[in-house]
Amino acid sequence: MIARCLVPVRALLAVLCLLWLPGCEKAARNMYEQPKYRPLVASTLWQDGASARPLEPGVVARSAGALSAASSGRMAELAPPQWTAGDAPRDAGEPGKDGALQPLPTQVSMEFLRRGRERYDIYCAPCHSVSGDGDGMVVRRGFPAPASFHIAAMRSATDARLFDAITRGYGVMYPFADRIDPQDRWAIVAYVRALQRSQHASIEDVPQDQRRELSAGAP
User: Fold this and answer.
1) DSSP at 63
2) For residue 121, what are the contacts with CB-CB under 8 A and spacing of at least 6?
3) Which of the 8 DSSP states describes residue 29?
4) May I ask the CATH class of domain 112-202?
5) Which residues are CB-contacts of 53 (< 8 A; sequence separation ≥ 6)?
6) What are the residues whose beta carbons fall under 8 Å from the beta carbon of 174, sequence distance 6 or more?
C-alpha cells in the first residue's frame, strides 16, 4: 500500500523538478547577463550625466596607454627607461644639485646586506631559491625556472640590469616597483652579488689575516 502511494509522489516530484529547471537556467543567466552600461551611454545616476566614471586615485591601468602595446607590458620595450632620482641605476648615477650626473654610493655595509637578504628571502627566494640557483619552491611546483645567478651571463650583468629587472620585471617575472622601494632594490642587488661571490670566491678574496684560519681548518 505504501509503495503504491510513493509512486504518485515521485511522479509529482519529477514534474516539479522539470518545472524548476527553466527557473534555474534563468537565474544562472541573470548572474552572467547583469544590467550594465555600454560605453559612452548617458546616465542620470551622477551629476555629470556620464555613465563612465573616473578612476580612483592610485589605480594603475593594466591594459591601457603605452604599456598595452609593449611585450610583457614593459615600457622598456618601447623606449629607453626614464629614471627618477630614486630609481636611477647605480651605473648611470643620479643628478646632483648642479644637474650633473653623480655616481651613487658604492659602499656596502653588513647592515645593508642583511636588509637585502631579508627582502630577497621574502620576494625573490620563492622562485630564485635561497642560494640563487633558480630552484625555488614555486619552481618545484611547476613555475618556469629563472636563470641561476651563478651562470656567467648573470655574473656579468651590471647592477643596473639587475635593478631594472626588479623594477620593471622580466619575462614571466612581475615588476616589483610597487612592493619594493628603490633603496631595498639596491640592497637586494648587493645581496645577489654576495650570493654570486660566495660560489665563485678564491683564496685571494679572503683578507690576509683570515687566510691562516682557513688553512688551519682545511683537511
Assistant:
1) S
2) 130
3) H
4) mainly alpha
5) 46
6) none
Cell of 52: 563612465
How far from 36 is each of 26, 30, 46, 49, 53, CA to CA, in Å? 17, 12, 15, 15, 13
Domain segments of the chain as ranges? 112-202
DSSP 148: P
Amino acid letter, 63:
S
Contacts 24+ apart (CB under 8 A), 60-69: 60/178
Could you read off the pLDDT tens digit of each residue along the chain, which spans 219 residues?
Answer: 555 555 566 777 777 666 666 656 666 666 777 778 887 888 888 888 888 888 888 776 665 555 454 444 444 333 334 444 444 444 444 444 433 333 344 578 889 999 999 999 999 999 999 999 999 999 999 888 999 999 999 998 888 888 889 988 988 888 998 899 888 988 999 999 999 988 887 777 777 777 777 776 655
Place of cell 633603496: 183
Q: Is the pTM of this model over 0.90?
A: no
Pair 195, 149: CB distance under 8 Å: yes
Beta strands (DSSP E) in 33-150 are: 94-95, 101-102
At 170, give phi and psi (nearest 5°).
Answer: -160, 130
DSSP letter for 173, please: B
Residue 25 phi/psi, 5-degree rounding, is -65, -40
